[in-house]
Amino acid sequence: MNRSTDISNSGIPDRSDLPAAFNTPRFDAVQELVLAAAADGQNLAVIGAPGSGKTALITEIFCRSVDPVKQPAAPFTLSQKTLILSPNRRTATSLRDAVNAKLVSPRAGVFSQTFVAFAFSVLQSAAAHRGELAPTLLTGAVQDELLVESLQHDMTMLPAASRDSLQLRNEVRDLWRVLDAFALPAAELASRVSDSPAVDSETVAKWIAAANSIAAAQRIAEQANRLTAGGILARATELLLSENDVEFELPQRLLIDDAADVTEGQLALLAACAKRGIQFCLFGDPDLAAVSFQGEKTRLLTAPEQELQRKTPGLRVEFQRFVLPRVYRHGEAIRNTLNRIAEGIGVSGTADQRQPRVVDRAAGSVVADTASSFSGEINKIAHQLRKHRLGINGVKPVAWSEMAIICRTRSQAAAIVRELDFQDIPAVMLGGGVVLSENQAVTDLLKQLLAIITGQPLRADFIAELATGPLGRIAKVDYSRLRAAILITERRNSTPGQPVRQVDSVLEELFANPNSFAPDYVDTPAFRSILRLAKLWQRANSQREDKTVRELLWTLWDGAEVATALQQTSLNERGAAKRYADEQLDAVLALFFAIEREEQAEREIGEEFITELLSGALPQDTLAKASQQDTVHVTTPHGVIGESYELVCIAHLADGVWPNLKSRGSLISVPTLESLLRGENLSQNTRRDTAHDELRLLYLAASRAKTTLCFFAEQSENSRPGIFWRLVQQNQVTLPETALTLRETVALLRRKLEANPGDQETAKQLRVLADAGIPGADPESWYGMRDPGPAATRSVRLSPSALKNAQDCPLSWFISRFRSPGATGSALAVGNLIHKLFEELPETGLSKAYENLREHWEEMPFESEWQSAAELKNAQLMLENLRLYSSTATAEGWEFLAAEVPFEFTVEGVTVRGKIDRVESKPNPDGSLSLRVIDLKTGKSKVSKEDAKSNLQLLSYQTAIAHGEVTEGQNTPAGASLLYPRGNKSDTRDQEALTPEKQQEFTETLQQIAESISGTSFTARIKHHCGQHGGSECEIHLRQAVSYE
Is the pTM above the cut of 0.85? Predict the structure, then answer.
């Protein structure tokens, strides 16, 4: 006959002298009863609200069991074999640290474990007894990889897009968990569900097909002696229940933390332990059952006898129940908020723990506020974090690590960490792991490995990714310039009449045979960097027959020479730079671990495995300990199980986000199968149950707060607070969005001083900040405040094509001179090609020029084929017109002298430098030459004949000839022409020969231009230039600054 005893709030004397923390050996009356019952060897079920002392009781029971000297007043000698079980590794580690902090001598060995670790120790004992190897863990990421291919074949009833989706793989892995939890082989699922009248045939067919995929994956895993976490639990349970000669090293007592989160598989393991007479001490709160979100609904904490008997029929176990009556973690304000949240949660067995007595009623506060945007929400959160860090307005200063931001999803947590980086608040995302396929350093390494293993060369598109990624570290703009430089080099080195190699072909050849390229093939840092990558690739590729995959990976990673820089950034920097370095290092380390696991399991690491890593979407499992640096913790509710913080900010309680009432398992209905296997009414899995699960997560998150609890949501056109907001609406206040940073303080003070220049107090505050070296506080650094000094007297350099722009509008010249170059289109590319062919035309002839035109035409960046075809006809017509022009010029006695002639001359401190497209000559009677300049214009627009007479560009060319920059000897300029070959026939705009008068006039113009552009200000010619072009580039610079309006 089962016996249970309930001890709750009634009859407990008031102890006003109770401590508010649990690092002391003093306990209230109910807690003393729990300790006594544990010492008496009874099975216990201890229920208590968050902060009621459950963790303190667990550590105290353990400490008394192993160190009776610690508590001489209450010797505890019943057992020296006590084990603590926790739902996750982080909680187990925290409990281990708490125990060692209380013991006189820290205890060696692993006495605080997860359920899976405990089950694995059972498997290890059995394997050692039989002389076999113990199985290894099959992680979620590897499960995902095993399921990818089989689901394509088995789940044919779903659309192709669904078969390839992460959602389907998640649901199938959840189905795998259910099969393990109920010890049901995947191959036997069909016989269990085929005749169920409560489920439609389509759903049953999905279950069976998914089970077939799981069975195929299980066969592969079994060959490598690997089990899932659920499989390890099931195998250990089977061993403990079976008749065998293995002497298992089992504890005499199990202290189970968060027992409300015990899953079906863990419950079966506990039932097997109970059959062997192990004492249980269960601790938890039914309202904190976070795993119910995954479909788990065990009632071990509230009905332990029935649940254990359900798993092991005939098992008779008696439990004594206790309800802890007091809460010590937080004050009445936070407790009242938690009570409102808990009232909406469906009762699971008991609700006695929902109204505990608060020891320190005055402690703590609760606030809630909305923002008009996500960034505004982050600003409000940042203000609260920094206020508590600095101890402003009477708030006790709090370390960053004593603050937490809890949001509903992992993606939101990642976004908040990024935003806090910009606020200069150190933050780290807890929980999860590294998704290899989302990290470029990893994907670049994997793609190189894949090419090495398959014997494939690297293609140009991947070379671009590699060069501009974290391993190549070439800026994208520098890579674009490198491609342009390669094209110019290839054209310069090409043999006349032979096609020029395309840039992609050159890059692929570079990686195939880097030693054939000289280091100064293109003399730029970008080329030297990509040449280094190519030589590294060649070295790794040459080692593929002699090295393991892990050794090849190390060659590629070490040779990239980025590890040291990333490590220094991680150790010495803050904010986004540190986070980026941490992410890269963590991801590459996870990749090495993934490769190492495969090698240790003696499995082939080939194309299939690397392809699976590249397509995987699940985080890699990790045993790495979380950072011990003082940082704000950003996580989901599951990441704070067993934790507590002085300040908790619950972010983005938005409609559709928290709560998320979308149905779970919508593709293959896993919750329905779990209810069926549990023997429940299938109609119980409702939207109401989902809302209760979401409330439990909110209750879990809010209950972590010790001093301050904040709720935030966005109220805008795109987002609004969710239905849970009504639970905290009575605490709504208006919180500031100021970030409380020195940068923001400087901005506010400068704004005040701008509005009131005579404000001496504000000026003094800015002076204090300036003397402290705070950026932006010193007026000398303010825009427009520094004396520009006298006008510059340095030499002015101009190109011929810029003279007109500088004369028309100095401001426009300045903008065009110093702005980033825009994208170059097809018109410029065609113009450059026509110039080159015109230069070669005297030697090649028209037919060869046509041939060369067609060979180079594929390099032209046209957006469509019809545009390319139309422009090709125009280009061919331009070549014909240029041939006719050359014939006419020859008939008039002009001979081709040179093309692309460089020149440079200086007049009155003004230097003009450029190139002349074409120079033609005609002999004079005295033996000298008359030289004529031809400037080729392939565009559609033309200058007027009158403007050509005073064209500054042509005048600069004739001046260059007069200065002897083109040929040696006394040669005279004989005029210049703008040649327009576009259209049915060529056209020219002519300029007469340079005379001394025109030379003097040109010199004076140069001096005027130099004066207008050599100073510190640049005049806008509104009447003649800027005002004539609506929306011109000058316009934005003519508008008054916003800060002065």
Answer: no
